[in-house]
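hey team, just a heads up i'm posting the complex here instead of the shared drive bc the drive is being weird again. everything in one block, sequence lines first with there labels, then the predicted structure for the whole assembly after. its two chains so it's a bit long, scroll down
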Amino acid sequence: MAEPARDNSNLAVPIRHRLQFRVLFLVLAMVVVTVGTSNWMLARLIESQLNETLQRETLRIGEHLADEFRGPLMMHSVESIEQHLDLVAADPGLGFVQIEDRAGHVMAERINNTDLYDHFTSHMGEQNERVALTQSRPTLLGYARSPEARVLRTPIFSTNGVMGAPDLLGHVTFVVVDPAHRATLQKMRALVIGVVCIACLISVPLTALLMRRLTRPLRRIMRAITMLASGGEVPSLPLKREDELGMLARSVAETAERLSRARTELVLANASLEQQVEDRTAALNAANRRLEVEIETKNEFLRTVSHDLNAPLRNIAGMTTMLRRRFGETLPEEVNHRLERISANVELESAMLDDLLELSRIRTRPGDCEAVDLNELISGITQALEHELAERGIACGIEAPLPTIDVERNLARQVFLNLIDNAAKYMGERPTRSIAISHKLEPGWLKVSVADTGPGIAPSDQQRVFQVFRRGSEAGTSSVPGRGIGLASVRAVVEHWGGEIGLESEVGVGSTFTVSIPASRIVSAELGSPRSKSAA
Amino acid sequence: MPTRTRGDQVSESVILLVDDDPDYRMLVRDAIESLGRPIKVFECVDGCDGIRFLQRAGADEASPRPNLVLLDLEMPGADGHEVLVRLRADERLRDLPVVVMTGLDDDESERRAMDNGASSYTCKVQDTDDMLRRIEAAAIYWTTVHRQLSESSSAA
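-- predicted structure starts here --
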């Protein structure tokens, strides 16, 4: 299976860090240490056995020599000693033989191996020292030059002494050389090294083979996990193995399957979600388009109706006027009066149509928004109404400085002019006559209230007053001129701003109209903002 | 006071009224006739009729050349804008005074009418006296003042 180069590079571990090589080093070290140590210990064991045997042999020879020379020494026969020495020295296993008298003087000697002898004499010293070395038992001296040689100094005693105790007659000192001993030791060492080397040679390929069997499936699993993470196709895994690696592989395969299932589900869910979003957006767009067309159609309808309704009215009014102008003098008074009434009704109807047209304009042809300082706007309105307010004795004022909002100036003026003018018009002969404009900021809303101390509006009329051409039914209402368009246009404007108009009223106490404006239209809530160009 | 041409001949002024509303036409005719001036009013019932009259086409071969056209905008067939365009494209009718009288009081309609070559734009306002005064004033201005001015300048 061809795999991306990226994954191979990911799987490349530096050689010294590879598991295979670490284990190989460990195994080699263990083999060297264990095999080396055991062989070395075995060699030491054999060596000590050999040494012991050599020592025993040496002591035996010592006893034998002591027996050999006891007679001649007791007889003080130098010749006999020499003769015996010749016999003894014929044995090549003896490096040299020395016979001392009891005072430590060398009486006779035979030398077969001069090296050993020189080494011995250079260490042995003179008579006095030899006397000091005198022992009652055979003593091995450390003056042998090589491990296969042993130097033994054996005292020679008489068989029965004068005082009943054996007398020291002298010493025999000799060196025994066992060439086989040395060869054996050398063989032993060679064997130790050889065994270690063979063990190493065998263990290296064996370990490598074993590790290969372990790391190959491990690498396959690693590759699989890498592919899993990157979302690629998962390569085959050593699923059939019974060991831990097999278990690992099976669990990775299971994870891969679950992941792939989950991924498929996710893709499907995403697709369906996208489809849903698309459908909804399309539906929403269609609804929006329908709504836009509907609004446009409705506005167009309203506009057309207003125009078309106006044309015949205009004709009626025109002809009535013409009649009165041309024939007024010849017509009876009664007819003239009726013509007048026709004109008045037509004018009213016409004015109402204009109002309707104006209302439809608020919704269809809004002007440009600008920063409108409500303080300035309302001051302008109260100044315009000053004469009327003063005449009726109404106090009108702003409680706290109002914010500046981003709206159409003419519409804002229309809203507050209507509210204040209404409050003034319907005030009547109340004992306290005041109009208070206040505001408060609520989360998301600016609420501006126009509160009056007028007669109030009955609960049954409170929704009616916002409908076009509908007015309150209170007794005092009919005396106030108006067609019932003001509050309807206020509501149209406020709703056009995205807000709402509220009314709280109690008969005999007063009414409070509250204009809620979305807080997003607040330009600044700072007090005393600089005066902008006034439209008032 | 009758208008005079060269040679001191009293000549009648002619106003063409193009409007699809017969009652309105009657009203305008009444208003103009009530002025008591020598003004003859011709009526056309829609834009096509008006164009035919002005270009003296077909049955209107012998139609007089008006001194003023009072033109409505909203009409079936060719509307007021089309009449204006066709008029201004005609060499002979290019300088004819045309006063638009319409129920449309939006800026867009007015701008379009003036662009198309209207001499003046008057709304059919709801106040009857006001409307009649406007009609009368327009009739007097275009049939006397303007006519005298243009005739004297062409004579010079």
